[in-house]
Structures are given as structure tokens and as C-alpha cells.
Specification:
Number of domains: 4
CATH topology of the largest domain: Rossmann fold
CATH architecture of the largest domain: 3-Layer(aba) Sandwich
CATH superfamily of the largest domain: P-loop containing nucleotide triphosphate hydrolases
Radius of gyration: 28 Å
Strand content: 5-15%
Strand order of the largest sheet: 3-4-2-5-10-1-11
Distance between the termini: 55 Å
CATH class of the largest domain: Alpha Beta
Structural class: alpha/beta
Helix content: 40-55%
């Protein structure tokens, strides 16, 4: 139950904010959200299942609502709040704007920090080595080849900034872009980070983690959350039992979870680095100079040879069957996830060998670390080998994960794993073997929902076709498990501020004549001296349309021809001059693009954003649903299109006073049975159907 003290704290904070802001009007949607979140996390609805899923329309102020609904309660109960977002932009908004605003004006005393993955931080010791003088024996151990003069100057500037505390050591805050290959050589990594040694104690990563332990609110991304769950929870972040989790942009979470549970390996690439395992272990054993290093080194040599033998069998098997697997295209998906028994047998062997190699390599790694700590081995000699062996351990863990998924026998009750092989061309032809789960809800349930103190899942587009069911299944939430669900409509006056137009179209999108009809229709739908955004379902149609209209004299800013930032900047300059500005974009411009007021008054959607299942995982999922007697189009495609269409239409009205028109050039909205469902899932715009 919420105590009177916590209720008073929340009410007073909201009142303080209202008094500090000019023209502040309390929104009933926002106050309702705050109350529902606080009551759910306090256990008023269910004492053991403190989870609420919220769809909050644009303008409801959900960031302030979930912060105010969770932080005072967490402070009172000595818990932490972990806010996970899908985009860097929202992370920065929370850390730079929303949370400081609540702390300053709300009168709520709490600390917060942005938490990033280890590889976003520089390793102070590696950076120090990289800028050492030529006479220093450590030079050469950090880089495979000496950096260029410009890279070296950049490294020296970074080293100086780190020393004088003008840079915190993360890649995101450095003043200019850092080449990926350069950053890879100096980034922090768990296998070469000797935090017990003085050289590593003050590394930026460990300083950041100290801040994490002391902070009340942690702002993270979905990927870091899933990385922690994959390690069992509580390894990167606090234990789930000690946290209230807020999953913002929650509609992205199932896909991120699936990506984290997937694995891929190259066959020839694995053969190449497997051949170097023995060489690395021999170097480590010689450096350690201890009898205890002999046994793991010998075992690695034997197991590495066994691994090469098994991988060679796989390579030969694929090459023998290449005519079957790669007859029509360079990718072959195993139907229903079923792989040949021979390959499955080898998969079990490779998985077992990989597991043994991981164990022995970690033993050598730990022995070398101990030798460094005891001053038996100089750090500059050990560090390159620690990094090299760490790299090998990562590769082996990925190899073991993939082959374990190939060796696994799928349950008849659940969905099978998707498994496929792809042939890559280039300097060196190779074969990539991949596997991915189709359903990840059980992973989220076991690792997060069943363990955490409480959770808030929110987004502007959680529902599909006005129902939470599609998302609920994806996210692993059971129908009657005690979880709460709330839809909070936007406070915007959609009826007065926007008109949804369905113009008469002769052709359906499947017709060859549809692209030409779009080209013919568009000029009349892009008024002069207005800001227009036209969204396409494919680059091909976008580029073809832009080319045709430019020949007719239209000036268009096209996605891909400049950076997104440059396009938006140019668009706003034109709008500020009250000139005509037209932006063409694809699906990525349908989400996260914020063009309030005069910067967008006219939105055109050329085609419903259906996506054909082209990836192996999507194809396998559709196949599984069909095998169960379902309809993948209605169960997957239509709900996903509903969410994408809502996101696309959400570009128009960003503030309460915004106005404009949305035109959708797809007659399926009126010609197909599901069209009405898609229309009814949209906000209540004034409609103008020209059929």
C-alpha cells in the first residue's frame, strides 16, 4: 500500500512543478498515470505481480509520470529505479532535461546517472600505452600496427583530457568522432581489465560503476538490460529484486531480447582463429612459468585440434550440399528448424569441445592474472596476452552458444528455433551459420518479470488493433497473471486539429501502375508554402518518385542523400522562411522524428507499412504459425502494421496546438476487411474518405 507520506510527497512534487512553470495546466491523463504507476508498484493491485503496461498517447507527459510515480516510492523502500530506453536521444533527454527538471522543481531529492556498457569507455592503461614514447617497451603491445599521425595526435589529446578530468572517458562525450578500429584498440574490456592493480583502479569504467552503485536512478538502454539478464541478472546492474524497472519505448523490447538470444558464426573464420588457440596458450604458459599452466595448455592444444577436425567436417558438408543449399539464393533456411542428423551430431560435439576450451582458457587467463598481481610477470608483457585470450574466450562463448542451439532438440509444445546458413562473398568466401529463437517471452518472464520488485512498460504504441494481446504475448506476460494494463489517450483535440484523408486511388499497391499513380497524385497533396513529409515503404519507390517529381520542378529533401540531421536542419530553415519544404523518407522517419508546429503541417503516407517476412526469423515465425493452423498475415503482419501506422501518423501532431492533414494513398483501407480495423486503431482524426 502507498503510505500517506509517499502520497503527500508525490502530490507536493507535482504541485511544486505547477507553481514553477508558467501557463502550467495539470493534465488529468498525467495525474492518472502517476497514480496508477505508484499504486501498481506499491502492490495495491497485486502484492507479488507489480507490473503495469501502459500505452500513453503523445502529450500525456509519460516521462514525468513514470519518474514521479516510481522514484519517491523507490527511495522510501530503499530500491533503485532502472529506466531503460531504446534510443540514445531519449536517454539524453532523461539525463539532461527530465530528471534534472524533476529534481530541481519537484523538490524530490534523488541522484541519477547514465549507465553505459563497458565498451563505451576507454581503458586508461591502454590509452597510456598508446601514447608512450618510442623508447618505452610497452609501445607496440596495444596496437597491431602503429597508429597514423592524426590518430596519435587524437590519442594524445584524449590522454591529456582524461588526466586533467576535462573528459570522463566515454566515446559519446568526446568532441569528435573516433574511428571504430582506433577505439577498438583502447576500449575497456572485461578480460584485460585488471581492476585490482593501481594502473586500472582509476579507469573511467570503474569510476562510472562507482557512480552507479551510489545513484538512486539508473538510465540504461534495452540492450544493456538484456546483456545483464543474459548473465543471470545483477552482474552489470543491481539485482532485479532490488529494482523498479521502467521500460520506455517498450514495443522495442521483444526484438532486442530476440537479438540478444541469437548467435552466428563463420565456419572458415572459426577455423582460422581456432588454429591460433594453441599458439596463444603456449605463449601464456611460457610467460607464467608455473607447473600449473602445463595441464590447461596441453588440454587446449588437444581440444583445439579436435575443434578444427569437427569444423572441417561441417565445412565439407556444406560444400558438398552447396548445390542444394544455395541453388537459388545465398541463404538457406532449414524448414521448421530441422537440421540433418549428421550436422546435429557434429553440433553436439563442437558444443562440448567449445565448453572445455572455454574452461581451460579461463584457467590460463586467471593464472596469468595471478602472476601479474604477485609481480611474477611484468604487466606490459602480460596485457597483450590477456587481451588476446579474452578475445578467444569471447569467440569460444559465441561458438558454443551457436552450436548448442544447433544441437538442441526443439520442444513439440513450443516454437522451434530458426536455423539457417548463408554464403558470403568478397575477399574470402565463407559460410555463416545462425540460429535464433522465435519467441522470447519466457526469457523475459524467467529473467525479469518473475524476479523484479516491479516494472512499468510504456510506449505511445504498445497496443495493436486497440488490443494489448499482441504485445503481451511477445513480452511473456500471461493473460491473468496479475499484471495491469492501461490505455491513456492523448489530450490532443484530434477532431479539430487534424484531418485524415483517404484519397481515391484506382490501383492497389500490388499493381504495376501504383507507383505512377502515386507520382500523379502527390503534387496536389503537397501544398505550396507548407511543410510536408512523405513516407514510403521502400527506398526504390521513394527514389523513383523523387526523380520523377524533380523533373517536374519540385525541390525535395530525400533521405539517404544527406544525413538525417542535415535534412532536418535544411527543412527547418525553409520552414522559418515560410517557404515550401518537402521531405521524403522511409520507415526510419516514421519513428522518433519530432517536427512540431509549422515544421510539419502535411503528412502523406504512400503505402501501408506492411513488411514482407524476408528475414529467416520472420519466415520461420510465419511457418510456425501456419503449422499451428493460424494465419500469419492476420496474427503478425496486420498487428505490426497497425503499430507502424500509428507511429507514422504520430509525426503530425506533436503539441496541443499543432494542426495539419494526413493523406494515406492505399485503397486497402477501404477495400480490405482489415482496413477498417487499421483505421479504427488510429487516433480519432476527422476523416475524409473520398470513395
Amino acid at each position: 500500500m502507498l503510505s500517506d507520506n509517499i502520497k503527500d510527497t508525490i502530490r507536493q512534487a507535482y504541485k511544486n512543478i505547477g507553481q514553477e512553470l508558467e501557463n502550467f495546466t495539470p493534465r488529468k491523463q498525467q495525474t492518472f498515470l502517476i497514480a496508477e504507476i505508484a499504486k501498481t508498484l506499491a502492490g495495491e493491485y497485486d502484492k507479488s505481480r507489480k507490473i503495469i503496461t501502459i500505452e500513453a498517447g503523445t502529450g500525456t507527459g509519460k516521462s514525468l509520470a513514470y519518474a514521479l510515480g516510481s522514484i519517491p516510492l523507490a527511495k522510501a523502500r530503499k530500491k533503485k529505479v532502472c529506466i531503460a530506453t531504446a534510443t540514445v536521444a531519449l536517454q539524453e533527454q532523461l539525463v539532461d532535461k527530465d530528471l534534472p527538471f524533476l529534481k530541481k522543481f519537484g523538490g524530490v531529492d534523488f541522484s541519477f546517472t547514465l549507465v553505459k556498457g563497458r565498451q563505451r569507455y576507454v581503458c586508461a592503461q591502454k590509452l597510456s600505452q598508446a601514447v608512450s614514447d618510442d623508447d618505452n617497451p610497452q609501445v607496440g603491445f596495444t596496437f597491431a600496427e602503429r597508429p597514423s599521425l592524426s590518430d596519435l595526435n587524437n590519442l594524445k589529446a584524449m590522454h591529456k583530457a582524461l588526466k586533467d578530468n576535462s573528459w570522463q572517458g566515454d566515446i559519446d562525450s568526446w568532441k569528435e568522432p573516433i574511428a571504430p578500429q582506433l577505439w577498438h584498440q583502447i576500449q575497456s574490456d572485461k578480460h584485460s581489465c585488471l581492476k585490482h592493480l593501481s594502473e586500472h583502479t582509476h579507469c573511467p569504467f570503474h569510476k562510472a560503476r562507482e557512480t552507479t552503485e551510489l545513484s538512486d536512478v539508473l538510465v540504461i538502454n534495452h540492450s544493456l538490460l538484456l546483456a545483464d539478464l543474459s548473465l543471470g541478472g545483477g552482474k552489470i546492474l543491481p539485482d532485479p529484486e532490488e529494482c523498479f524497472f521502467v521500460i520506455d519505448e517498450a514495443h522495442h523490447l521483444p526484438k532486442v531480447a530476440r537479438d540478444h538470444a541469437s548467435a552466428s558464426v563463420t565456419v572458415k573464420g572459426a577455423l582460422d582463429w581456432a588454429a591460433k588457440l594453441q599458439e596463444t596458450s603456449d605463449k601464456m604458459a611460457r610467460l607464467i612459468k608455473s607447473q600449473s599452466a602445463i595441464s590447461p595448455s596441453l588440454k587446449i592444444a588437444d581440444d583445439a585440434q579436435d575443434l578444427i577436425v569437427e569444423l572441417t567436417k561441417v565445412k565439407g558438408f556444406i560444400e558438398t550440399n552447396a548445390a542444394v543449399y544455395f541453388d537459388k539464393e545465398a541463404l538457406y533456411r532449414f524448414e521448421n528448424g530441422l537440421i540433418p542428423s549428421t550436422l546435429k551430431h557434429w553440433a553436439a560435439d563442437i558444443s562440448d569441445i567449445s565448453k572445455k576450451l572455454i574452461s581451460q582458457t579461463i584457467k590460463l587467463y586467471n593464472l596469468l592474472m595471478d602472476a601479474v598481481k604477485e609481480n611474477e610477470v611484468q604487466l606490459y608483457l602480460a596485457e597483450p596476452l590477456l587481451g588476446e585470450s579474452g578475445f578467444m574466450i569471447n569467440r569460444l562463448e559465441n561458438l558454443q552458444a551457436l552450436w548448442q542451439m544447433y544441437a538442441h532438440t526443439d520442444s513439440e509444445k513450443g516454437a522451434p528455433l530458426a536455423r539457417w546458413i548463408e554464403k558470403t562473398e568478397g575477399k574470402k568466401q565463407d559460410y555463416v551459420l545462425s540460429a535464433s529463437p522465435l519467441e522470447v517471452g519466457f526469457t523475459l518472464e524467467d529473467g525479469l518479470w518473475s524476479k523484479c520488485e516491479g516494472a512499468v512498460l510504456c510506449s505511445a504504441t504498445v497496443r495493436a488493433l486497440n488490443s494489448f494481446d499482441h504485445f503481451r504475448i511477445q513480452a511473456g506476460l500471461s493473460k491473468n497473471d496479475g499484471s495491469q494494463y492501461q490505455f491513456v489517450a492523448s489530450p490532443f483535440d484530434y477532431q479539430s486539429n487534424a484531418t485524415l484523408v483517404i484519397p481515391t486511388m484506382k490501383c492497389e499497391p500490388s499493381s504495376d501502375k501504383f507507383p505512377e499513380e502515386v507520382i500523379e497524385k502527390l503534387p496536389a497533396l503537397m501544398p505550396e508554402n507548407e511543410a510536408s513529409l512523405v513516407l514510403f515503404s521502400s527506398y526504390w519507390q521513394m527514389e523513383r518518385t523523387a526523380e520523377a517529381l524533380r523533373k517536374k520542378g519540385h525541390k525535395i529533401l530525400v533521405q539517404g542523400e544527406q544525413s538525417r540531421q542535415s535534412i532536418i536542419k535544411r527543412h527547418k530553415v525553409l520552414c522559418d522562411k515560410n517557404a515550401t519544404s518537402i521531405v521524403f523518407g522511409t520507415q526510419s522517419f516514421s519513428e522518433g522524428l519530432d517536427l512540431p508546429g509549422k515544421y510539419l503541417t502535411n503528412l502523406v503516407i504512400a503505402k501501408l507499412p506492411f513488411s514482407v517476412p524476408t528475414s529467416p526469423v520472420e519466415e520461420a515465425h510465419a511457418e510456425h504459425i501456419t503449422n499451428k493452423g493460424g494465419n500469419p498475415f492476420m496474427q503478425i503482419a496486420v498487428p505490426e502494421t497497425s503499430k507502424k501506422l500509428i507511429q507514422a501518423c504520430g509525426r503530425l501532431l506533436r503539441n496541443e496546438k499543432d494542426t495539419g492533414t494526413i493523406s494515406i494513398l492505399d485503397r486497402r483501407l477501404v477495400s480490405k476487411r482489415y482496413g477498417q480495423d487499421l483505421l479504427n486503431s488510429l487516433p480519432p482524426f476527422k476523416r475524409k474518405v473520398e470513395y
